[in-house]
Amino acid sequence: MRLPALRSFVLPTIAILASTLCVDAAAHHSFARFDSSRIVEVEGELLSFSWRNPHIRFEILAINDKGDEVRWALESHSVSILRRTNASPEGLKKGDRIRIAGWLTVRPSTEIFVHNLMLPNGREIVFGAEARPRWSTGNVVGDETEWLTAGTASDDRGRDGLYRVWSTYFGPGSTFRTFWKREYPFTEAGQRRKDAWDPLTDTSTPGCEPKGMPLIMEQPYPLEFTQGDGVIEIHLEEYDTVRTIHMDLAAAPLDPERSLLGFSTGRWEDDTLVVATVAVDFAHFDPNGTPQGSDPGFVERFRVSDDGSRLLYELTATDNEIFTEPVTVTRDWVWRPGEQVRPYECRQ
């Protein structure tokens, strides 16, 4: 049956962003391919949906202003983001007519990153750590979240305080927002490679392919430090990643095999864990197309804050092919009692 004329239109941007939509634009993959300066609304028949990592996905069939049928490919945040809110797929049913609001891609396409979804029964789902209801005043899910809970002070400090689960905080003053820089001291070769990056066709982490260093350290999900025999392991929820830090420097190979995460050695400087990583084989430094050369090196510093509530992090990259000088970025994590590193279970 032919659908009646449905809406697919662009709404004014500034008022929407200020009053009804507040989202973090760096919660998983690069969002550079989406135009965050404008919001579109589309109504249509729900053809399919998939509630899984790395992104939840939908497909809807709508009618444009010319009366033509258009299939829209929609995606939103990961299940790992949403499981720490009260969002759920309850009520989503193929064949129903739904309304969505989100970002179009920077160049014309039928892809949208969704922030709000209205079901036929009037129930609205909001997606992300800071998304706000758009149409509903009461029947909303996804608006209750752990992501805005700041760190809790703890007696676990110093070296021993490192070994627990740490979480990302999206609230006021979040350092996650400012982890990557807007500008870098590029060499001529580095600038050419950055300029050649296309956010619509180039990606650091397509589908379920894991991230490498240092991009994996942006992941917003919990991470946990554990001790092993001569090693410290960092368990990161995204892609079920495990980084191994070798604490016996004398046993480190002179020419380690190149890999996504590289080869890491660690040492303690008072209460700070200092980690040096080499032999990284990964194309990008950040999610926004900043390239890496053939032999980047990284030094990371992890330290528990004086009140035990935060894990302070600093990473310095040296890459003479790409940067004219070392680049340092910083962020932190917070301690929330009861948080866990959960299975990521990525499926395309």
Strand order of the largest sheet: 9-10-11-12-13-14-15-16-17
Mean pLDDT metric: 88
Helix count, DSSP H or I runs of 4 or more residues: 3
Task: Give the helix/strand class.
Answer: mainly beta
* Element-level helix/strand string: EHEEEHEEEEEHEEEEEEEE
Percentage of β-strand residues: 25-35%
Helix percent reads under 10%
Contiguous runs where pLDDT drops below 50 for at least 5 residues: 1-29
Counted up, domains total: 2
Comma- or semicolon-separated keywords:
5-stranded mixed β-barrel; 9-stranded mixed sheet; mainly beta; 2 domains; OB fold (Dihydrolipoamide Acetyltransferase, E2P); 348 residues
Q: Layout of SSEs?
A:
Blueprint: E1 8-11, H1 14-19, E2 39-50, E3 57-63, E4 69-75, H2 79-82, E5 97-104, E6 111-118, E7 124-126, E8 140-141, E9 165-166, H3 188-195, E10 223-227, E11 231-236, E12 241-246, E13 263-269, E14 272-278, E15 297-304, E16 310-318, E17 327-334
Parallel strand pairs: 4-6, 7-8, 12-13
Antiparallel strand pairs: 1-2, 2-3, 2-5, 3-4, 5-6, 6-7, 9-10, 10-11, 11-12, 13-14, 14-15, 15-16, 16-17
